[in-house]
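Before relying on records like the one below, remember that each one covers exactly one chain. Contacts with other chains, cofactors or solvent are not represented anywhere in the record.
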Amino acid sequence: MPNEAISPALRPLVQFIEEGIPFNKFLGIQVKLLQENRCVLCVPFQKEWIGDITRPALHGGLISTLIDTSSGAATFTRIENAGDRVSTVDLRVDYLRPGLSEDLYADSSIVRMGNRVAVCRTEVYCGGCPALGQTQLELVATGQAVFNVVRR
C-alpha cells in the first residue's frame, strides 16, 4: 500500500467524488486511495446490488459503473484547471467471474494522458483490494476506459 492513501493535494477531489456527484453519493461510493494517476474506490455491499438472485451475484451494471467512476476519478487527478472537463468516450468491461455479496473495489490507473484523450485500466475485486494490502483476491472484472479531456 502506498505511503499515503490520499495525496494531500487531491483531498478536495475526494469530497467532489463522494459528495459532489449525486449518483456516487446515492451508491455510497468511498475513495480509499487517490494519488496522481491512480484511484481506488469502494461501493459498500447492499442487497439491492444483487443482479442474479440464484447465485447471488452483483449486477454487472454496478461493476461497470464503478469502473467508469474510478477511471474518471484517476483522470481527474491530472486535471489542472477547475474549468477542465472529462467525459467518457468508450468503456470496455470484461466480466471474469460473479461478484460476491461483498464490498466492491475498483483500482484504476492512467495508461496514457494526452492533451485531449486519457486512457485508464481498472481491476475490480470483491471484499478487498491488493492496492490496500489485501491479498489472495480474485479479479471479478477488468475494464478499460477512454475519456475526452476538454481543457479550458
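The chain has a mean pLDDT of 95.
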